[in-house]
Fold these 3 entries.
Entry 1:
Amino acid sequence: MSWDLFEEIKRIRRDIDRVFSEFMAKPPFKVPVTGFREPLVDVWESNGEVIVEMELPGLKKNDIDLNVTETTLEVKAEVKREVKTEEKGYSLRERRYKGFYRRIQLPVKVDPSKAKASFENGVLEVRLQKAEVPKRFKVSIE
């Protein structure tokens, strides 16, 4: 049994190619959008559904735009507020802008028509039912 340097180099090259191919085959988990912050997100699977929790502090549910496909969840939230205070001797006007964006690649296919979302205390929770797995059929050969 002998060790071959060239065979070892070929093996390492195959391993690197495999890792790189697997990395490039999956779309990125997040897509940055200029001017928006990325909210913190937790994603997990539980009993036939995918659950996504996202922190969106300081927003109201009307500020949030939520889109779901079979493989992705996209959340965009914008809020523009203006506060004007006028008292004797001075006038104060403050403008505030917040923007959040996150596109998440889901771990499994889901049924977008059955998505449910709730928003409470700055936390968005989205529940997505997993898509039914196609059943296997036996095909007879003619």
Entry 2:
Amino acid sequence: MVSQELLDLLVCPACKSKVKLVQEAWLACQNPDCRRKYPIRNDIPVMLIEEGDKYRDVSVENLGTS
């Protein structure tokens, strides 16, 4: 699990907006224009812009677990 201390520091690498933990498996950018979602794999956030781009058009309800 990603610690709260780490969550407080993380921002979207593309737009620098805060991210929100979703379903304990994703970090979703809070900027409505950005819409990137970053998976958490083996308790490590994959904060690569290319990875977030893959899920821009997927709603947080449809993300599932990574």
Entry 3:
Amino acid sequence: MSLAPKKLKMRKPHRPAVKGMAARSNAIAFGAFALKATTGGWVSAQQLESARRVITKFVKRGGKIWIRIFPHRPITQKGTQATMGGGKGVLEYYVAIVKPGTIIFEMAGIDEAEAKKAMTLAGYKLPVRTKFLAKD
């Protein structure tokens, strides 16, 4: 189950500069515990799915999990034997742009120690540094 948008406005968009801290999706909204990014970067659909599966497996399908980011941005790559020119490469995968401070996952329905361990394991699967948060 790879995450991908159903429809795109532009099939091959330019890559914008991603700067600054997260202005939205930076506070716990749904669950009691969260995994927050402390650095920025791209999280691919495969990495996100891998982290989700680790959490689900660790909590033995208990509790509720929310994924707060979605991979909307398409990333293109040219073939290895392609020469210069010839236009932009083909669509390879989708990424979610994560800024520092973005909440990636939220959980509820399990105790804090178990949630912390599950979120820590999920953080190992992601290319950004993360920290565990609990709702006050």
